[in-house]
Give the backbone structure.
Amino acid sequence: MQVALAAYFIYSATTLFGDGLVRKFDDIGLGQWLRYLTGALEIAGAIGLLIPRLCGLAALGLAGVMVGAVATELFLVDKPGPVLPAILLVLSLVVAWFRRDTILALVAKLRG
């Protein structure tokens, strides 16, 4: 599931960096910087999903991005489509849950 999520988020990021979503982000009203930030976060998360030590944290981060995507789709766009981001949110949370040991190991390492 991690590899499939990583592949999808790389695909999604490439669409964000293209011209196809410029109008949608104009409609959101926060500027194009959000499109680039979202794409960068999706690429970073996708790479993190493939690194054993980072996979849980990356999945948690991607879940956060998808919370924002679901909220945006529900409240800020004319033609809402929250189903796909909601599915990606759930899948990211499932990966984070099953890789929670990697999250806990990173937290323990930070505590010293």
In short: The chain is about 80% helix and 0% strand. The mean pLDDT is 94. The CA atoms of residues 27 and 89 lie 23 Å apart. The longest helix spans residues 55-75.
